[in-house]
Amino acid sequence: MVSQNVHLFNDTIANNIAYARNEVYTREQIEEAARMAYAMDFIEKMDNGLDTVIGENGVLLSGGQRQRIAIARALLRDSPVLILDEATSALDTESERAIQSALDELQKNRTSLVIAHRLSTIEKADEIIVVEDGYIAERGDHATLLAKNGAYAQLHRLQFGQ
Predict the structure, then answer these.
(1) Is the pTM of this model over 0.90?
(2) Mean pLDDT score across all residues of the chain
Protein backbone atom coordinates (compact mmCIF):
# COMPACT_ATOMS: atom_id res chain seq x y z
CA MET A 1 0.00 0.00 0.00
CA VAL A 2 1.18 3.48 -0.87
CA SER A 3 -0.69 6.05 1.19
CA GLN A 4 -0.71 9.81 1.47
CA ASN A 5 0.25 9.23 5.12
CA VAL A 6 3.60 7.46 4.86
CA HIS A 7 4.86 5.69 7.98
CA LEU A 8 8.64 5.72 8.27
CA PHE A 9 10.99 4.63 11.04
CA ASN A 10 13.94 6.32 12.75
CA ASP A 11 16.30 4.23 10.66
CA THR A 12 18.18 4.39 7.36
CA ILE A 13 16.48 5.02 4.06
CA ALA A 14 17.58 1.54 2.93
CA ASN A 15 15.97 -0.12 5.94
CA ASN A 16 12.79 1.92 5.50
CA ILE A 17 12.53 0.71 1.91
CA ALA A 18 13.46 -2.87 2.84
CA TYR A 19 10.84 -2.93 5.59
CA ALA A 20 8.44 -4.14 2.90
CA ARG A 21 10.21 -7.42 2.23
CA ASN A 22 9.38 -10.63 4.03
CA GLU A 23 12.36 -12.47 2.58
CA VAL A 24 16.05 -11.70 2.21
CA TYR A 25 16.87 -8.76 -0.03
CA THR A 26 20.01 -7.38 -1.61
CA ARG A 27 21.36 -3.86 -1.62
CA GLU A 28 20.96 -3.89 -5.41
CA GLN A 29 17.23 -4.66 -5.08
CA ILE A 30 16.80 -1.72 -2.70
CA GLU A 31 18.72 0.60 -5.03
CA GLU A 32 16.67 -0.54 -8.03
CA ALA A 33 13.39 0.05 -6.17
CA ALA A 34 14.59 3.53 -5.16
CA ARG A 35 15.68 4.26 -8.73
CA MET A 36 12.32 3.13 -10.15
CA ALA A 37 10.55 5.36 -7.60
CA TYR A 38 12.69 8.33 -8.72
CA ALA A 39 14.07 8.59 -5.18
CA MET A 40 17.78 8.13 -5.93
CA ASP A 41 18.13 11.73 -7.15
CA PHE A 42 17.57 13.09 -3.63
CA ILE A 43 19.03 10.06 -1.81
CA GLU A 44 22.39 10.42 -3.57
CA LYS A 45 22.59 14.07 -2.45
CA MET A 46 22.37 13.08 1.22
CA ASP A 47 25.60 12.68 3.18
CA ASN A 48 25.21 8.92 3.67
CA GLY A 49 22.96 8.11 0.71
CA LEU A 50 20.82 5.05 1.39
CA ASP A 51 22.47 4.77 4.81
CA THR A 52 21.14 8.16 5.95
CA VAL A 53 19.05 7.96 9.12
CA ILE A 54 15.89 9.96 8.40
CA GLY A 55 14.53 10.52 11.91
CA GLU A 56 11.27 9.48 13.51
CA ASN A 57 8.57 9.20 10.82
CA GLY A 58 11.02 10.58 8.24
CA VAL A 59 11.14 14.03 9.81
CA LEU A 60 14.21 14.93 7.72
CA LEU A 61 12.36 14.35 4.42
CA SER A 62 9.81 16.41 2.51
CA GLY A 63 6.34 15.01 1.87
CA GLY A 64 7.25 14.18 -1.72
CA GLN A 65 10.45 12.42 -0.65
CA ARG A 66 8.50 10.40 1.92
CA GLN A 67 6.04 9.28 -0.76
CA ARG A 68 8.89 8.25 -3.06
CA ILE A 69 10.24 6.05 -0.23
CA ALA A 70 6.77 4.51 0.13
CA ILE A 71 6.61 3.85 -3.61
CA ALA A 72 10.09 2.26 -3.49
CA ARG A 73 8.88 0.08 -0.60
CA ALA A 74 5.88 -1.07 -2.67
CA LEU A 75 8.10 -1.75 -5.68
CA LEU A 76 10.42 -3.88 -3.55
CA ARG A 77 7.53 -5.81 -1.99
CA ASP A 78 6.15 -6.75 -5.43
CA SER A 79 2.76 -7.77 -4.02
CA PRO A 80 0.00 -9.18 -6.29
CA VAL A 81 -2.45 -6.56 -4.94
CA LEU A 82 -1.59 -2.88 -4.79
CA ILE A 83 -3.49 -0.09 -3.05
CA LEU A 84 -2.56 3.48 -3.93
CA ASP A 85 -4.30 5.91 -1.57
CA GLU A 86 -3.59 9.42 -2.86
CA ALA A 87 -0.07 8.13 -3.56
CA THR A 88 1.03 11.28 -5.38
CA SER A 89 -0.77 13.86 -3.22
CA ALA A 90 2.43 15.34 -1.77
CA LEU A 91 4.20 15.58 -5.12
CA ASP A 92 4.44 18.58 -7.38
CA THR A 93 3.23 18.13 -10.96
CA GLU A 94 6.73 17.56 -12.38
CA SER A 95 7.56 14.89 -9.78
CA GLU A 96 4.19 13.25 -10.30
CA ARG A 97 4.84 12.94 -14.04
CA ALA A 98 8.22 11.33 -13.37
CA ILE A 99 6.81 8.91 -10.82
CA GLN A 100 3.72 8.06 -12.88
CA SER A 101 5.79 5.82 -15.15
CA ALA A 102 7.06 3.97 -12.07
CA LEU A 103 3.50 3.60 -10.82
CA ASP A 104 2.38 2.38 -14.25
CA GLU A 105 5.12 -0.26 -14.13
CA LEU A 106 4.22 -1.17 -10.56
CA GLN A 107 0.58 -1.75 -11.52
CA LYS A 108 1.34 -4.13 -14.41
CA ASN A 109 0.11 -7.71 -13.92
CA ARG A 110 -1.47 -7.02 -10.54
CA THR A 111 -4.80 -5.91 -9.14
CA SER A 112 -4.67 -2.23 -8.24
CA LEU A 113 -7.09 -0.10 -6.27
CA VAL A 114 -6.29 3.57 -6.77
CA ILE A 115 -7.91 6.22 -4.60
CA ALA A 116 -7.25 9.62 -6.13
CA HIS A 117 -8.45 13.15 -6.65
CA ARG A 118 -5.80 13.82 -9.30
CA LEU A 119 -7.29 12.30 -12.42
CA SER A 120 -3.88 12.01 -14.09
CA THR A 121 -3.19 9.05 -11.79
CA ILE A 122 -6.27 7.09 -12.89
CA GLU A 123 -6.75 7.88 -16.59
CA LYS A 124 -5.31 4.52 -17.70
CA ALA A 125 -7.46 2.45 -15.31
CA ASP A 126 -9.62 -0.33 -16.74
CA GLU A 127 -12.50 0.90 -14.61
CA ILE A 128 -13.03 4.14 -12.73
CA ILE A 129 -15.68 4.50 -10.04
CA VAL A 130 -16.72 8.05 -9.19
CA VAL A 131 -18.02 8.41 -5.63
CA GLU A 132 -20.07 11.43 -4.57
CA ASP A 133 -21.54 11.82 -1.10
CA GLY A 134 -20.73 8.19 -0.33
CA TYR A 135 -22.55 6.78 -3.36
CA ILE A 136 -21.37 5.56 -6.76
CA ALA A 137 -22.22 8.37 -9.17
CA GLU A 138 -20.55 7.00 -12.31
CA ARG A 139 -18.62 3.99 -13.48
CA GLY A 140 -16.60 3.30 -16.63
CA ASP A 141 -13.23 3.87 -18.26
CA HIS A 142 -11.76 7.33 -18.85
CA ALA A 143 -13.18 7.80 -22.37
CA THR A 144 -16.64 6.54 -21.41
CA LEU A 145 -16.84 8.83 -18.39
CA LEU A 146 -15.73 11.86 -20.41
CA ALA A 147 -18.40 11.07 -23.02
CA LYS A 148 -21.10 10.91 -20.31
CA ASN A 149 -20.31 14.55 -19.50
CA GLY A 150 -21.12 13.97 -15.83
CA ALA A 151 -19.23 14.43 -12.58
CA TYR A 152 -15.99 12.87 -13.89
CA ALA A 153 -16.00 15.05 -17.01
CA GLN A 154 -16.63 18.14 -14.90
CA LEU A 155 -13.73 17.30 -12.58
CA HIS A 156 -11.55 16.60 -15.63
CA ARG A 157 -12.35 20.05 -17.06
CA LEU A 158 -11.53 21.68 -13.72
CA GLN A 159 -8.16 19.92 -13.46
CA PHE A 160 -7.08 20.19 -17.07
CA GLY A 161 -8.88 23.36 -18.19
CA GLN A 162 -10.56 21.77 -21.18
Answers:
(1) no
(2) 89
